[in-house]
Amino acid sequence: MNEPASAATPPAPLLDPAERLATLRHRLAPDALARLEAAVSAMRTDPTAVRTRFPAVGRELGRGPLDPTGDPHDPFAWQVEDAGRTALLVALGPAVEDELASLYRFGDAPERRGVLRALPYLPLADAGLALVDDALRTNDLRLVAAALGPVAAARLDDHAYRQAVLKAVFVGLPLDGVAGLDERTDPELSRMLAGYVHERVAAGRDVPAGIWSLIDRHPPAQQLAAITAELDHPVPDRRQAARAALRHRTLDR
């Protein structure tokens, strides 16, 4: 899953780390801000200090959405501790590559999420992409959501990116949080998503919100015909599921 995307695929835009840090500074109370600045300073003088400072970020800075008006249950929303951990990793400079894999491997879920959130800001090559691959193999919504950011959009090859989008669908993540969909939805991804809709209909189940907008970018005739044919299926649950799915298609337009 770690081949680079083709040259024809435009990379996802990366966020400005100074902007993110400024948002964090405004969010923190004065004592927490002082602790952040002390930790950042420690990174610059002794990179190995990250091994103890990184796990302590949630306790030192606090938790909760970076945007205090945001949804605390949004798996794609940055948390205060994500931004704090990003600040520490950015402060490491080139030394970050020596520490990153261990921080991820031995970290708990919020620490791993912090590593994944920081990746677009770090001077990494394949090391960061390997962590994205690992997170996408989990069923932890926090990690999958954090992995589906700018690095995945810019660096995953076409097959891996499609599988990543399907993973988001399987675990129930809202697709509007996935980076790169505007640039990277191709006919094959539309076909795969339509196939997934048909599987759901055949099982008499609901279709995830937002999926039709991606399918209809490159409408796959065969899969759409199969879904429409379910309207006449002898099993009532399948007919009902097909009607509901096609209503969603109308609403998504």
Automatic annotation (TrEMBL):
Taxonomic superkingdom: Bacteria
Cited InterPro entries: EboA_dom
NCBIfam families named among the record's database cross-references: EboA_domain (NF035938)
The name this protein goes by in its record: Uncharacterized protein
Gene source species: Egicoccus halophilus
The organism's taxonomic lineage, starting at the top: Bacteria, Bacillati, Actinomycetota, Nitriliruptoria, Egicoccales
